[in-house]
Amino acid sequence: SVIQTIFSRPSTFDAIMGMYTLDDMAGLHPQQIWVNVEFDGFYRDHNLDIEDYLLKLPKDYPIAYISSPDISFLKSIGGKLKGRAKLILRCLADNVTETSVKKSYGEILKDLKSVKAFASGIMVPRNYVWPVNNNLYLLPPTSLVKDAHALGLEVHVGSFANDILTSYNYSYDPAAEYLQFINNPDFTVDGLMTDFPPTASGAVGKHCELFHVEKAKCIFG
Ligand SMILES: *[C@@H]1O[C@H](CO)[C@@H](O)[C@H](O)[C@H]1NC(C)=O
Ligand SMILES: *[C@@H]1O[C@H](CO)[C@@H](O)[C@H](O)[C@H]1NC(C)=O
Fold first, then answer.
1. What confidence tens digit (pLDDT) does each residue in 205-220 have?
2. Is 197 helix (H, G, I), strand (E, B) or coil?
3. Residues of the signal sequence (predicted)?
4. Is 154:120 a contact under the CB 8 Å cutoff?
């Protein structure tokens, strides 16, 4: 799989797979389910109480993670979940302002201790860990993963896709990019979120083979 130069996705696959509901997902009996609540305020505007919905889900739904960019939502549901799922702060671009604390996500992550008070981890765009310069060459990694791990926070990285422009250091190989996050001497992130799971899973599988890591330890997120 090689990065394409036309940055649009064909509509060919649109009707093949419908939108899955949470109940559909649970029906597939996965080991774990991760629920992302992008904007609690959107649901409230439509008179829907997402917190109530999540708290009333059948107890056998294996909800392992709940993520949201909304700190007030995470704090509120955290008080009621009684540890039933891990809460993850999903950070948007570092110059975007989080609506409840009115600070940018970049600023919020400068105080990881305050994040630890209400979340088990963070999910960040790729450039928070491996920034690129204006010419799309990789810069040295930030200390974010190490700093977060030192506090016991999980770090998940999102925004991967095979068909977006990425750093030239990966030589147009999306698998090389995933490996950069899990196979480097200094850190390994706890999870990868991607629009192309088979590529990520292939890269992680290859990593396990190469480094004789037990498969069980190679299941991310
Ligand atoms: C954030 O930065 C991006 C890239 O530099 C820019 O395009 C965007 O307008 C900025 N957004 C805000 C909210 O400042
Ligand atoms: C990315 O590639 C450039 C050009 O070869 C190199 O100077 C730089 O060190 C590379 N970055 C990383 C993090 O390896």
1. 877 776 665 554 555 4
2. helix
3. none
4. yes
